[in-house]
Structures are given as C-alpha cells and as structure tokens.
Design goal:
It is a single chain. The chain is 63% helix and 10% strand. The chain is an alpha/beta fold. A hairpin with a 2-residue loop joins strand 1 and strand 2. Helix 2 packs across helix 11, helix 4 runs antiparallel to helix 5 and helix 5 packs antiparallel against helix 7. It is elongated and about 115 Å long. The mean pLDDT is 78.
C-alpha cells in the first residue's frame, strides 16, 4: 500500500471511528417497522407493487418489439428487400401502435407507482417524526445532557428520511429489480437456452465485482457526508464565535484548519471517482466480453438458421438489463446492514426510558410548603450522589438562599423541585403532593426556574418574554420587562419590543439575557420562583433594583435563590449551605456570619473587598 492510499485509509478510519454497528434483530426491527408504520397502508403498498410489476415489463417489451420489427417488418423470409417495404407498412404501423401503447402504459404505471408510494412515504415520515418529537419533549433533561444536539436532530431528520426512502422507494425498487431479473431470464431462455446459459454463468462474476467494490465506495461516501457535516459545523461554530477568533488573532489557524478538512474532502471525492471508474471498467469488460461472445454465437446461429436476426437483436437488448438488475440488487444488499443501523437508532430513541413518569395530580390552586424528606439523588450514569439524605422544609412565602461551592447540589435541588428528575430515595412534595404523583406540566407552572445561563430563542424580545404565557397582552409584557429592569434598554432599540434578537440572544449582553429570562419567568406569576444565580452578570446597582422589585412582586410567593453574594443572601429569611451534597449550615445571615463554616469564610472574603 503506497503512502497516498495509507493516508486516505487513515482519514476514513478517523472520520468513521464512531460509526455504529448493528446490534439488534433484523427480523424484530423489520416486523416492527411493518406493523407500526407500513401496515396501515397495506392496500396502497400492494397496489403500488402490482403496478410496479406491470411497469417492469417495459424494457423487455421494447426488446420483443425490436424482434418483431426486424423479423416481421424489415425482413421477409430472413432477407431484406427494399421493394417489400411498401407491402410491410401495415405491419410497421402495428409496431408503431404497439410501441406507443407500451410507452403509454409505462408512463401511466410510473406515475401511479410514484404517486402511491410517495403518499405512503410522506404519511409515514409524518407519523415517525411526530412520535420522535413527542418523545423528545417527554424525555428527562439528562438525556439531552448525555447526547449531542446534532445527533438528536439527525435522528428526527436524516434517519427518518433514510427509513422512509428504504421502506417505500427502495422496497419497490428491490421488488422491481428482482422481478426484472427473473422475467428477463425467462424470456432469454425462451428465445435461446444455450446463449442464456452463457449469460447466467457470467452473472456471478458481475455480482462478485459489485459485492467487493460497492462496500468500499459506500464507506468512502459515508466518510464524505460526515466530513461535509464537520465542515458545516466548524464554519457555524467559528462564525458564531468570531469575536473569540479575532480577539486571539487565530484567523490563520482557522483558515488552515478548514483548508485541511477541505483537502481531505477532495482526496476522498477523488477516491470515490477512482473506485467507481474501477467498477465501471470491470463491469464494462464483463459486458463487452459476454456481448461479443453472444453476438458471435448469435451470428453463427442466424447463419445456421438456429436463430432469427430479431432474436439476436432482442438478446443483445435484454442482456444489459440483466446485468444492471444484478448490480442494483448487489448494491441494495451491501447497504442493508447500514439501513438497519438507522432503523435501530430511531427505535432506540422511541424506546428510551422516561424516568419522569407523568402523574395525575394538578398543582393549580394548591398552596403550602415545599419539603424534601430524606432525599438522595444521583444523575444517570454517575456513581456519586449529587445530594444525599437531604431534609428541608420551605414554608410558603419564604425567601431562601442556597449557598455552597460548585458541585455541592444547589442546582440539583432546583431540578428536583421542577421535576426534571425524580429522586432515587426519599420524596419531594409541594403543597402536600408528592411530585411523583403530580403532572410535570403543572409542577413547572407552579415552580419556575431562571437559569444562570438562560437559553434565549430566536425571535423578537416580546415573543421571548411571552414564551411562558402566550396569551399575555402587550401591557403585561411591558410590565414584567419593567420589573426585570429591562424596559429602558428595550426602548433604546429601533423597533422596541419587536426587535429581533438573533439565535441564542447573540445581540444581547450577559446581563440583558438574564433580565430577559427573569421577565419571562415573572410573566407566568409562579408560586415558587427559582433563581439560579441569575444576578451574577449584573452590576451592583441593577442587582439592587431587581432585588427591590422582587421583594415587592414576590410578596406572598416562595422564592429560592442560588447565590454566592452575601448582599443577596442577607435579605433572605433563611440561608441553607450545601457542601458535597449535604446540608451543613442553616440559619439567618446574623447567625451564620458568627458560625464557623463556609458562610463565614465567604462573608469575610466579600467584606474585605
């Protein structure tokens, strides 16, 4: 193997290092696909299959018509005589009408076949994508933390598209190729069995070439698609982070990085062309050798009156169709496993366990305390508990501060209150209702969390604020924007509340994003407001204003704030300190600042600044 081939192999192996292998049962996956997605359209699929079988007669029909044209129209008793043409015109017109009728049937069958199967494909793709989307809405947060968003999206879009293509179009194509091969063999054996044996003996060599080379071409094509996706991802990522690239003067590095990927892409594309040319060369060689022998033996047969000239012409016309059916069937067979990998991936997502099973109790209108009773929880795939044996009681209307070092379990408390997860031990209850028995949607209306790094959706500022309460009036949107100290900034924008803020709020600063997320939460008027260090990106003056607003707006409501700022914690009714997943301190600011521990250390650090 030369250096160039070695380099190409390394590129392909690196790109496909995480390629999936099929680990399911083909029979079970195929049965499920048919039962759940194709069976409702059984009549339509069978009709499309019947029309496809009729459509398959076309290439052989034209070959047999060529035989008729040569033997019955152009030749009389095996001889061509120009003087006989006038007398053969009625037969010629028969040929024209039969050819016109054959083409008409072919066009109609082709249209009906496509119409039937496209309808099935679109209905199937709608059902599957709808189920996947609903499944993604029901899955717990941990699933999205463990899996890349790009791969999740590819399940819903690309994988479903491939399944639709193979379960409808390629299924009919497979049936058509197989039927055409069988029908073609029957016809040529009927014409001349001796020449047919020669063709049958050559078909395995043709299939062998495709079996050996098509997987190589397919592997390179998969690598090309992945590399192309990588280039798109790299470009999008670097464009969104262009300020970082320019800040560190890394333009040259990024140009080189992209050029390397593009260079690899060109190498792989050229390799595909080379492999295809090799395959075409071998196929052409087999076809030409067999065709030459057929023509030679056919001419001898015509000379010996064993065959007519029309038989030979039909034979030569049918032969390439047989070879093409074999190559097409081989191509499909070499791709079967890859298709079942896709099917299995989609079914795995649909079967993903929903760790948060919806309860029936609605929290709307209920009031009361929030309790953690001996709660322990660890994230999926983790050995260490995020929180351990937590006992906590938060009374209605209290303002609680959660403090502690990173990884101590503060955010986990919030996620359990919102029922993003259920604890492995103990119980979390709100207003006397164990959250395992509660409807998650009502829980998240009751308790609303504002994250430290909020996700801002593309659209206008007004649309983002009203996201949690779509029926909100413009005056309500404006009121909550004022409460979040965002209104004055909005009024400086060209089109005020209708200003587009771009994907992930790219046009907003960190503090503006936090205030926007806060406004979204305040508009829903939750019973419990959970603030995950949401004022960390604000200046001291704005933070003081928002604290004052929250004290007024949330009066009578429960609020829990994750913070590392003493200025925020001292205004709370109770401060809870977590360390290594356990509560180590509980009390007011005045009590804890005198007590040895985490809070006193933070107090002294911030007091000295």
């Amino acid at each position: 193997m030369n250096a160039g081939s070695t380099r190409i192999k390394k590129i392909i192996d690196r790109i496909l290092s995480d390629i999936d292998a099929y680990q399911g049962s083909m029979n079970k996956d195929l049965a499920r696909l048919i039962r759940e997605y194709l069976k409702p359209y059984k009549a339509r699929i069978l009709l499309a299959l019947f029309v496809t079988i009729i459509w398959c007669f076309f290439p052989y029909g034209t070959a047999l018509l060529t035989r008729y044209l040569v033997d019955e129209v152009l030749l009389v008793d095996g001889n061509f005589n120009i003087s006989n043409i006038a007398g053969q015109l009625p037969l010629f017109w028969n040929y024209v009408f039969m050819l016109f009728g054959l083409w008409t049937i072919f066009v109609i069958c082709n249209w009906v076949k496509n119409w039937l199967i496209l309808g099935v494909g679109q209905k199937m793709i709608y059902t599957m994508r709808k189920q996947l989307h609903e499944k993604l809405q029901a899955l717990h947060i941990g699933y999205f933390e463990r899996n890349e968003s790009g791969k999740i999206v590819s399940r819903v879009l690309d994988d479903v598209k491939i399944i639709r293509k193979w379960s409808t179009n390629q299924f009919l194509n497979f049936a058509a190729y197989l039927f055409r091969l069988i029908l073609g063999l029957v016809i040529i054996f009927f014409i001349n069995w001796k020449l047919s044996v020669l063709i049958v003996l050559s078909l395995p060599a043709y299939a062998w070439a495709f079996k050996i080379m098509r997987p190589v071409i397919r592997k390179i094509n998969i690598a090309l698609r992945r590399l192309n996706a990588d280039m798109y991802a790299l470009s999008a990522e670097r464009i969104s982070g262009i300020s970082v690239v320019k800040a560190f003067s890394q333009e040259l590095r990024e140009r080189i990085s992209f050029a390397q990927k593009m260079n690899n892409y060109i190498r792989l594309a050229m390799q595909v062309i080379t492999q295809q040319q090799k395959l075409s060369l071998f196929a052409g060689f087999v076809t030409s050798v067999v065709s030459g022998i057929i023509i030679y033996m056919g001419v001898l047969s015509v000379k010996n009156r064993a065959m007519s000239f029309g038989d030979v012409m039909a034979f030569i016309q049918i032969m390439p169709n047989l070879f093409s059916q074999v190559s097409a069937l081989t191509t499909i067979m070499t791709s079967i496993e890859a298709v079942f990998v896709v099917i299995h991936r989609v079914f795995n997502l649909l079967d993903e366990k929903e760790s948060v099973v919806p309860g029936r109790i609605n929290l709307n209108g209920k009031t009361g305390e929030t309790r953690f009773d001996n709660v322990s929880f660890k994230y999926p795939g983790q050995e260490k508990y995020a929180i351990k044996n937590i006992n906590l009681c938060i009374k209605k209307g209290q303002k609680i501060a959660l403090m502690g070092p990173s990884g101590s379990g503060k955010t986990t408390i919030f996620q359990l209150i919102c029922r993003f997860y259920d604890p492995q031990a103990g119980s979390v209850s709100i207003a006397g209702v164990n959250l395992i028995d509660a409807d998650p949607s009502s829980v998240r209306r009751y308790a609303c969390m504002v994250q430290q790094q909020p996700a801002i959706l593309s659209g206008t500022i007004a649309e983002n604020i009203a996201y949690g309460y779509l029926e909100a009036t413009p005056s309500q949107v404006m009121r909550t924007a004022k409460q979040a100290e965002l209104h004055n900034f909005i009024m400086t924008l060209p089109v005020k509340y209708e200003t587009e803020i771009g994907r992930n709020g790219i046009s907003l600063s960190g503090g503006q994003k936090q205030r926007l997320a806060l406004a979204t939460a305040l508009l829903t008027e939750p019973e419990i407001l959970l603030l995950d260090d949401t004022t960390s990106a604000l200046d001291a003056e704005t933070e003081a204003k928002i604290r004052s607003t929250l004290n007024r707006v949330l009066k009578g409501h429960t609020s829990i704030i994750i913070t590392q700022r003493i200025a925020t914690a001292r205004d709370c009714d109770k401060i809870i300190v977590l360390e290594q997943g356990r509560i180590t301190q509980t009390g007011t600011h005045n009590a804890l600042k005198e007590q040895e521990g985490f809070y006193k250390r933070i107090f002294k650090q911030q007091e000295s600044i």
